[in-house]
Design a protein that fits this description.
This is SDR family oxidoreductase. It is a single chain. This protein is an alpha/beta fold. It is 39% helix and 15% strand. It is built from 6 helices and 7 strands, in the order βαβαβαβαβαβαβ. Strands 3-2-1-4-5-6-7 form a 7-stranded parallel sheet, sandwiched between helices. Helix 2 links the parallel strand 2 and strand 3. Helix 1 crosses helix 6 and helix 3 runs parallel beside helix 4.
């Protein structure tokens, strides 16, 4: 396969968390990987080195996806260096683990939740979709949480839930609008996947017990990456607007 023909996958938020195994898996499938980071340059460089050690290709970019100017700059750099974006996988998204009533959120925390989980994806797709249209198609994958496709209140996590349920609607809207351009848009709903398993292969979770998850073992980054790899496959072009749980049966209570 000629260099210019190799597809490009941008794993947004790839240096840490669930994006790590996604980036490694897509690199194994022949994608050139784009990894952006806001502050974690050492983590991004480590992931790049690991991908290259296994025969893959990767570039790293500094930028904040909640910042419109950063996104324009990064997209321009990818266009200049790699010429295309075939898959946009939006794994990034801030989350505050401490339960907090809505009225106790500061303006800054509200903006972090909304911009990092919803507005940033809008800024990204606004820049990337025109490229995908010119290429003749592409894949966009967003990330939610269990049952984000249903409108339920989530006590203690209101701003995050508002952003992700909004993202679910945005995902399905884009799926309808871009279908004619051969661009599929789907959302993965990861379960309660925690460190150290976010960046781990499935084999490391085998035999481990997790009482929160009905299947009995912890979820891993590879569980999520397997679904991403399926959705970006050329023959997955009939799947769009889907909300796919990768939860081991876990639901928010």
């Amino acid at each position: 396969m000629a260099q210019k023909e190799k597809p490009v996958a941008w794993v947004v938020g790839g240096p840490k968390g669930l994006g790590v195994m996604v980036a490694k898996g897509l690199a194994e499938d022949g994608y050139r990987i784009v990894i952006n980071y806001r502050q974690s340059r050492s983590a991004a460089q480590k992931l790049k080195t690991e991908i290259e050690k296994n025969g893959g290709e990767a570039i790293i970019l500094q930028g904040d996806i909640s910042n419109k100017e950063d996104i324009r700059r990064m997209v321009g750099k990818v266009r200049e260096d790699l010429g295309r974006i075939d898959a946009l996988v939006c794994t990034a998204g801030p989350f505050i683990f401490k339960k907090t009533p809505v009225i106790d959120f500061t303006d800054e925390h509200w903006r972090d939740m909304i911009d990092g989980n919803l507005s940033g994806v809008f800024y990204l797709v606004r820049e990337v979709i025109p490229m995908m249209r010119r290429q003749g198609g592409g894949r966009i994958i967003t990330f939610g949480y269990p049952e984000a496709d249903k409108v339920f209140g989530w006590t203690g996590y209101g701003p995050y839930a508002a952003a992700k349920t909004g993202l679910a609607v945005l995902t399905q809207t884009l799926a309808r609008e871009e279908a004619a351009h051969q661009i599929t848009v789907n959302m993965i709903l990861p379960g309660d996947i925690r460190d150290p398993y976010k960046e781990a292969p499935i084999c490391e979770a085998r035999g481990k017990e997790d009482q929160r998850t009905p299947v009995g073992r912890p979820g891993t980054g590879e569980d999520v990456a397997r679904v991403v790899r399926f959705l970006v496959h050329p023959d997955s072009d009939f799947i769009t607007g889907a909300m796919i749980p990768v939860t081991g049966g876990f639901i928010n209570t």
